[in-house]
């Protein structure tokens, strides 16, 4: 009987040690892409990031030349400065800046659609909260 009591005590102690500590609340990442327009009918594929960087991947309708043209025109109208714009018929890479925010947009042709990867970093300043990105 004494051996079984010892086993129960050991089991209770091991289960108490196995319990994980409560997880800390996840920190809210800034939305560096808060006002970047997305094309209508775009489908979110992935979103990741840290407090300093945000990465969003979308699959958008339209050929790469149309999608790239949309972002070139729209972002310039929104005050973004195009620092680099290189590409061909299957890949376009835009690098733009505005108010201390840097953003890379990688576009890859996916047949009649375009895969878009937005990567933005704002450095030390958090972006102002605003409405969700508009679908235009």
Structure description:
- The chain has about 140 residues and is α+β, with helices and mostly antiparallel strands.
- It has a domain at about 30-120: TATA-Binding Protein, CATH 3.30.310.
- The protein contains 2 helices and 6 strands.
- The chain has helices at about 1-20, 65-75; strands at about 45-50, 55-60, 80-85, 90-100, 100-110, 115-120.
Short description:
The chain has 136 residues and is an alpha+beta fold. The chain has two helices and six strands.
Question: What is the secondary structure topology, with strand pairs?
Answer:
Elements: H1 2-18, E1 43-49, E2 53-61, H2 64-77, E3 81-87, E4 91-98, E5 101-110, E6 113-121
Antiparallel strand pairs: 1-2, 2-6, 3-4, 4-5, 5-6
